[in-house]
Amino acid sequence: MIVFDLRCSKTHVFEAWFGSSRAFENQQESGLLACPICGDRTVTKAVMAPNVGAKGNSRSAVAVTKPDSPAQPTPQAIKAALHALASAQAQMLETSQWVGRGFADQARAMHVGETASTPIHGETTVAEAKALIDDGVPIAALPLPVVPPRSVN
Length: 153
What we know:
single chain, alpha+beta, elongated
């Protein structure tokens, strides 16, 4: 098996495995190759860096370099981001009505025009949420848990 980096005419680069160089050429000539990103069938070999193994009798250590990875956020940065998210959610919920377990019914009633559309939040099952989405009802999960308001008896 041989691996080639391939490029489509829209400059997407992807990797593909072939039994031989001739197998690649046959598939290319037959129009069987397509970009997995955009479906373009104009595919050619891309420039590749050769994979050259270290010399067998070499005693020097081979330096392995890793591609630059993004800097890891500090705990303080994570805490600040969560605080900002919690503040934004709390501000949004100030203008939203808690409807409890009746969320799915309320959201559907607003969607079909049976009741006025207002911001609501509440509880629903995963199955109910999927059914709402399948029916085109615009819903979104809250990013952070919400403590339901206490019932007044």
